Amino acid sequence: MNDVRKDIETSKYVEESSEIYPETEMLKKRLEWFQDLKFGVIFHYGLYAQAGIVESWQLSEKDTWAREGNPYRETIEELQIDYWNLIRTFNPVDLDATKWADLCRRAGFKYCIFTTKHHDGFNMYNTTETEYKIGGKLSPFKRDIVKEVFTAFQQADIAIGAYYSKADWFSPFYWLDDATIKGRTASYNPLEHPEIWARYVSFVHHQIEEITSNYGSIDLLWLDAGWCRRGKEDLQMDQLAELARKNQPELIIVDRMMGGRHENYVTPERKIPELHEIPTKVWESNIPIGNDWGYVPHDIFKSSQELIENLIDVVSKGGNLILGVGPTPKGAITKEETEILEEIGTWLTIYGEGIYETRAQIKESATDWRFTYQKNGKIHYAFRSIRQESTIFVPLVDIKADEQSTIKDLATNEILTIYNENGKACISLNEVTCPKHGAIGLRITKGGENSFENAF
Predict the structure, then answer these.
(1) For residue 230, what are the domain limits?
(2) Cβ proximity of 144 and 95 under 8 Å
(3) What is the C-alpha to C-alpha distance for residues 193 and 209, in angstroms, rounded to an integer?
(4) Residue ranges of E strands in 239-318
(5) Using N-to-C axis directions, what is the helix angle for 194-213 and 237-247, rounded to 10°?
(6) pTM for the predicted model, two decimal places
(7) In this protein, which residues make up the domain named Glycoside hydrolase family 29 N-terminal (predicted)?
(8) Which ranges of 248-370 would DSSP assign to H, the alpha helix?
(9) Among 68, 79, 88, 416, which lies 20 to 30 A Cα-Cα from 358?
(10) SS3 of 132, please?
């Protein structure tokens, strides 16, 4: 899919910096908290759901890939006019944020990132900076969606993140109202027109102040549009971060793909790093449940089996995973996505002990087992996909155990018997519960449950 889509920016991240900033100590604690969460959801929701197309991307004349095979309109002029006018018909009357939050809680998500504004410039909250917003004069839906979503997820004890695009293709200070061929970047050179760019920077800063002031406690500010960076499109990130943290002093900021001070953790998109690619910074893989982030009719969804395997793989490598969900134009979560999330949640209810609040010890493994570790190092967990070739006896060395270990089936909490099979200490998978979806899971206490002198 990455070969088709061209919306993934190249990361400017090289390696973790040792430079000390005023927020460094705070972030050290907060990123430990973030790594405990492990599993989150990201909602891409806006006018593009009504259009049923790949987020905002068809608006950009230079991003021809987005219109290939499924153009919203035949000409770019007609497309842009009709898309901008979707504000008049986008009316998600079935949106029930409490139901969203309840589903996400049951799915096992510990944090939620919601799109306050995508590149198209349509605001999903009650900004005073523009009327191009949900609940505005032209919008039939007179509610603040961000407020409803943030409130519902806060009440469900799910941490909150605000997605915000640093680009705004509707803003007259980003895309000028002229005949210039428009691409994802500003349609003029900000260095040649500093007075226009200054108005855009002010617009962005005011919106960040609104988002961080008016919606209660926010844990994450997830800034997208990785082409907006120091140089031509300098958004004065030091001042922006200071402004945001004035209202949210423990805010984690993710200036995606930028590297440096304000990319507090990194976000590999649509991929899980191989062992040699694992960042030294805290990281989070982001993967949509379907092919697209937002709602597209007849999308093809990944199975719960694949996504559980993705989660185990990511966590065993030290990362977090967010899954992308795209609600329908009416504001519902599709039946397919609901079933997938419920299946993941069923598995996590049983096996989540080996996922949440764990850490990784990243090593090459010659087996098909994946491992996570309690932070105190005394207990580790071994997972094996139910799709792996079936065997009866598993040598203890394959699950990093020995004959002094206590090995339990996570599903039943029953201690497994250690056998001698062909001169090797083994466990029998006949004694291990096989779930309908996902992976089997074992809890391994090295040296026995009450003996930690030789803790793993």
Answers:
(1) 23-354
(2) no
(3) 25
(4) 252-255, 284-288
(5) 20
(6) 0.94
(7) 14-353
(8) 304-316, 335-351
(9) 416
(10) coil
First to last CA, the chain: 40
In a shared domain, residues 34 and 173: yes
- Shared-domain flag, residues 69 and 188: yes
- What is the sign of the dihedral through the CA atoms of 13, 16, 19 and 25? positive
CATH of the domain at 395: 2.60.40
Number of H helices, E strands in the chain: 9, 15
Separation of alpha carbons 223 and 353, rounded Å: 31
Task: Copy the structure tokens of residue 360.
Answer: 């990784």
Distance from C-alpha of 310 to C-alpha of 165, rounded to nearest angstrom:
27
pLDDT in tens, 378-424: 999 999 999 998 789 999 999 999 999 999 999 999 999 999 998 99
> What CA–CA distances, in Å, run from 352 to 155, 399, 428?
22, 18, 23
Contacts of 172 by beta carbon, 8 Å cutoff, 6+ apart: none
Q: 112 pairs with which residues across the strands?
A: 41, 160
Closest CA to 293 of 440, 71, 114: 114
Count of domains in the chain?
A: 2
Residues 398 and 322 in one domain: no
d(CA 357, CA 353): 8
